[in-house]
Amino acid sequence: MQQFNSCFENQKYKPLAEHNLAIAHAFGFTNSPSFIVAKSDGSNPQKIEGAQPFIAFKTVIDKELGG
Description:
Blueprint: H1 2-10, H2 14-27, E1 34-37, E2 46-49, H3 54-65
Antiparallel strand pairs: 1-2
């Protein structure tokens, strides 16, 4: 708990959280959870919003892998 409180009070991850929030806004996310599936180089990002079953992720990933 002490480690958590120290991290929180020092705002260690605030810049990362703000960056991720900006990305979410740029993609127009309105639901939680939300996900971005992209190639390893960051190209062709696709969003998946809301609680989705495994098959929703598998479909997007398989398409990106060419399968």
